[in-house]
Amino acid sequence: MKKGFTLIELLGIIVILAIIALVTTPVILNTIQTAREKAFIDTGYSLISAAKQYQVKKAGQNEELDLIIDYDNNRNIDVITLTGDLPDGGTFKIDENGKTELKLWNEKGKVCITKSKDEKKITVAKENNKKISKEECKLTEETDE
Question: How many domains does the chain have?
């Protein structure tokens, strides 16, 4: 009598492994995406903290306290030094009262984070329960009328 597996038994094992892979792959990919989003939200909080430190320094020098960083046009991006996944697009604003507003894009995670002046938390930007695109991930210019 020979010892070993038959072709049918080997095919059965391969089918079971394929089913396990099909079930676990989306879960793992979703976990990775969630981790990327949370890491980029942390970058947003770091940006707010660094901007407030920048304001304290400028206040001591009696300089303008408003700051707008435009990552799409490379405006003021070198004013504040950050580590981590830096924004690949979007806008950050802090006014003279320390109120911050942002809409920032991260290409790696394909995610836009947002925070208005009145909100305390940074969230992943969604519209109609769907993530917004890089082109939509910009603060609109306010007009004084």
Answer: 1
